[in-house]
Amino acid sequence: MSKQELTRRYLFFIAGLYVNSLGISLITKAELGTSPISSIPYTLSIGFPLSLGMFTLFYSLLLIVIQLVILGRRFPRQFWLQLPVSLGFSLFIDLSMVSLWFLSPESYPVKLICLLVGCLVLGVGVFMEMAASVVMLPGECTIKAISSTWNKDFGKTKVAVDLTMALSAAALGFFLYGALTGVREGTLISALLVGLIARWINQHLGSRAQALLSTGASASPVV
Fold first, then answer.
1. Three-class SS of residue 210?
2. 198: which residues sit within 8 A by CB, 6+ positions away?
3. Residues 144 and 63 sit within 8 Å (Cβ to Cβ)
4. Contacts with 13 (C-beta within 8 Å, 6 or more apart), sequence order
5. How far apart are CA 99 and CA 103, in angstroms?
6. CB 46 within 8 A of CB 181
7. Of 17, 76, 115, 130, which has the most beta carbons under 10 Å away?
8. pTM
9. What is the model's pLDDT at position 218?
């Protein structure tokens, strides 16, 4: 892979990272629950002074520690790139939340529209992240660590991990606030829709994205 192609892929990944954060912020602003990967940081941010981005950073570091425990010496060197990526992603989330300061839907239909738009944006971001094929966020790296260590299907492992995160966030909400906080129907909707949207985009635009990112060589879709 040439330096030019690698540069294009990293720039595409960074752009996808911001789109990712924007989608999470839109879903969060809908106040119908956030995405499974953000459910624990969001639940904590409700009752504590730190921002969603800061809790996302701490949670990402915890996931990296979990990967180290699972993989041990098999921890890939490129997985260390999660550290700067996690910092950038957390900053992007806080930036997105601030830039959407004006968004505060009150009626349920408007909240639902905001949620669906957020799922669409997040799906685009996930597609961009995977199409770049250079780095993964800690959530995906953790799923890959689990699936590779115990020879499990990546997709099924992702569903199990997402469910575990959502249930953990729900239990955390009951423990901290005495009520179901941060996890609602929007969490389930985003868990179901985002992956489908990312795959649909890849089916229709994946080959074009690879052609643009590569150095003229025809590449197969990533997802």
1. helix
2. 123, 124, 126, 127, 130, 223
3. no
4. 128, 129, 132, 134, 135
5. 9
6. yes
7. 115
8. 0.89
9. 43
**Most distant CA atoms of the chain, gap in Å:** 57
Cβ atoms of 180 and 46 closer than 8 Å: no
State the Cα torsion 98-104-105-111 to the nearest 10°.
40
Tokens of 45: 């941010």
d(CA 210, CA 195): 19
In the structure encoding, which two tokens stand for residue 90, read together? 């957390």
What is the identity of the amino acid at 14? I
Distance CA 56, CA 40 (A): 8
pLDDT tens string 93-144: 999 999 999 999 999 999 999 999 999 999 999 999 999 999 899 999 999 9
Buried b (16+ CB within 10 A) or exposed e, 11-50: ebbbebbbbbbbbbbbbbbbbbbbbbbbbbbbbbbeeeee
Both structure tokens of 189: 């909707």
Interatomic CA distance for residues 50 and 91, integer angstroms: 13
Q: Could you read off the pLDDT of 179-204 as tens digits, one per residue?
A: 988 899 999 999 889 988 998 999 99
Contact between 53 and 27 under an 8 Å Cβ cutoff? The reply is no
Query: Which tokens belong to 121?
Result: 């944006």
